[in-house]
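Researcher: Going back to the complex we discussed earlier. I've cleaned up the inputs and rechecked each line, so this should be the final set. Can you rerun the prediction on the complete assembly and write out the structure?
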Amino acid sequence: MIEDDFYRASSQYRLWSYTETSLQSIRSATNQIASDRVRAALRRAREQHLSSTTSAAVESQSEGATEEKNIECLTPDEELVLVRYYCEKTVELGETYRPPLPTNVRATAIQYLRRFYLTNSPMTYHPKSIMACALFVATKTDNHYMSLRQFAEGIPGDTTPEDVIAPEFLLMQGLRFTFDVRHPFRGLEGGVMELSAIAQGQGAAAPHLPHHTSDSLKRGILSLAPPPIACASVHDRIGRAHSATRELLKSAAQMTDAYFLYTPSQIWLAALLVADRPLAEFYLDTKLGGPLDSTNVGADASSHLQNPLYELRTKLSKVLMDCAALLQSYTPLSSDPAQMKSLKRIAKKLYHCQNPEKVNLKRDVAAPRLNPAVDSATPMSESETERLVKKRKTESQQIQQEGHSVFGPELVPDRTKH
Amino acid sequence: MASKNGIDRQDEDEVCPVCKSSRYLNPNMRFLINPECYHKMCESCVDRIFSSGPASCPVAGCRKTLRKNRFRQQTFEDIGVEREVDIRRRVMHILNRREEEFDSKRAYDDFLEQREEIIANLVCRTDVAKTEAQLQAYAQENMQSIKANQLLEEQEATSFQKKILMEQEEARLRQQMAREEYENERREQQATREDFLTRLASGSAVDAAALAREGNKVHLKKSSARRSEEERIRQKQAALRGSEGKRTGTPLTTADTAGAVAGAGFIKGLRKIKTPEPEKPYDPFMGLVPGKRDYYTQLESYPYAFLDKLRADTTVQAGGYALQEYYSRTLLEAFAGLGCFVQEEVAERDATSALGLSKPASTAGAAMAAVGEKAA
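Model: Rerun complete. Updated structure for the full complex:
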């Protein structure tokens, strides 16, 4: 199908599509590295503290070693909950602006956050600082211009513009410099547009199913099984399904891993499936043929022969069911007291295992920005940036040493000095 | 004996075998032959017998019907040679394949041999009927290629003629130039010598050395003129070589287009003619139909309240906003990737990339970091 090839060309498909297992393994690897890093950083901080205060370092050394094991880091699941909480916070933050930021911008920001925290851990970079930056970058990439000052003023609390853009480069690295996020919103509009055309008797047959006429399509949509909530007319029904689907896409699709696991087109159809099942099934049938009932098993062989898209249709309906289940599994954190409680616990835990070397992003970010030797094809995980910094440091030391070597100082001292 | 023979023939030549009148009586007498039977007769006999249309040959025992317009003057003294040359010309006219048309040199040689055989058959009158039939069939089948090759031959002949003429003209010019130059030189030399002598006669002894030097200069000038002449000859030769190369470089043009397949039965080893495929119109999308979609058919307009507002809004329309664009974009996004099964496809992709170049980049980075950590 041509449309699928269009999607296969996108960076979302090429770089940001995962299987469930690969998603898990990436998250656990990130978590593993980050926790190691946090432990090392905390130990260093403590040593520094001890050596600067007292001479009783020797006896507390052993104590420190035992204490170090007690540092409890977040688990991948806890990290995920935390990220999701801040995704919800992003939506709220978008609401605070007058006028509120468009859904697209907020959704893009959320996806940026989710993508960023695939290769980075909240223990290293606190989501609170990344969140605002992600939203700001999203206003830029989604063509919703806002000046930085205006943006910073809209954030509750005393956030300066510098605070907002401090992690900007870091975020972009984490996004592998791919800013294109394919959302299901516009696709939903297209689908609703077509459904209402069908309801008015103006529907056109899909290219692979030319036997449909606008009349037969209209008859089909009128004779559908009634929706879960009774509606006065077909238009009402479509409108209701539309708004329900949209709500689902705004919340559940954003807060779950749907974007990593499914394509936008599958996501909106799955959401429609949740909102109004018969309508969604009917719509799929007009596109790919069907219906796939267990009742007409006898006619199955013949319909199989008739419809070359049969295989695609069965496969798709399974994927859509999975996706719908994923969407339905979502419940907002704020509405669930139990989840809020666990979130508080996680937040407390994070307070203890936050990497102390990465807290002040404003100071830190200045350094990596000067070292932009980044391969955009590979995600710059935190470990890698640090490795680069370290490598560069040793190189510069080497150069300095060579300055005092037998062959004299370097040849172009002026350029390096200034 | 030889001398006697020669006299005999001379005598024979002088007397018309039909009317027995001799050249002795009529010094303007001309003898003609007809390639049908090659019997010789005088011009007045031809006029007399064949003026009123075709008639049979007056020589006793020959029953060939002759026409006046075919009579011509004999080129060779020996009638046998005359006849062979005629036959050869006719056969060569029909079997005029060119070397470029054959697969290999060997095939061309075979063709030449075949042609010689045919000529020999006709000359020696063995299998005449069969050979003639073959020849006719071939001529009919390959009318076009024969004509094309004839045309080519003609062109070649005329161009060759032209070239010869040009070369002759150039040679003439060159000679003339050389002559003129030589003349000029001589005149100049004479003038300088005279000048030299008069100056010597009028000037003092001190000038003599300077004057002698000037004389040398003249010699130098002459030699440089000669050198430039040589240069010109060299250039001309190079040009000739170039034109030759060009001539050999342009075979297989018009003759090629004729149907050689028909002649393949008779002449073997003919090159297969590749009629170049008609060039297809340029397709910038490489076979992709720009508007083609698999999941939906786009309508002219959609009944959608939200869009009706836009359609009515002049501020929107003024900018050239086309709702068609919106339709196509939304519908494309509605279905782009519907058939992409990320779970399967990405797993497959990961598998291939793990086998090949690199592991998923993030895990690679993690591994590197882990190593660095241990080293630290």
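Model: Worth noting: The beta strands of chain B are 31-33, 40-42, 55-56, 65-66, 72-73.
Researcher: Good, that matches what I expected from the previous run.
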